[in-house]
Amino acid sequence: MSNIFNKEEIKEKIIENIKKVYDPEIPVDIYNLGLIYSIDLEERDNYLFCEIEMTLTSPACPVADSLLEQVRYVAMAVDEVDEAKVNLVFEPVWEPHMMSEDAKEIMGASGAAISW
């Protein structure tokens, strides 16, 4: 089967969209928070399937369903993606050190008390 999709370009588009998704209580997007563990793209019969593995800052997150649906929606918003599935995992457990340096700066500037 020929590879008709540039998966790296598509993955970058998905990441750019995910960077628009925020937990309403945290001033950092969920990608820079380190909540996205993997983005896998699989081509089958000229269709592109996206599977995203993500976690939450807390298993008791009150907006978990909403965040999962938003991630699926923004992945599907990429023209080349035909189907997207988001799996919620808690292994490994999310920890503050998983945040990007930008996220750590934003959290610090916002007065968030986070131990690194």
Automatic annotation (TrEMBL):
It comes from the Bacteria. It holds the Pfam family FeS_assembly_P. Residues 11-86 form the MIP18 family-like domain. This is MIP18 family-like domain-containing protein. It comes from Arcobacter porcinus.
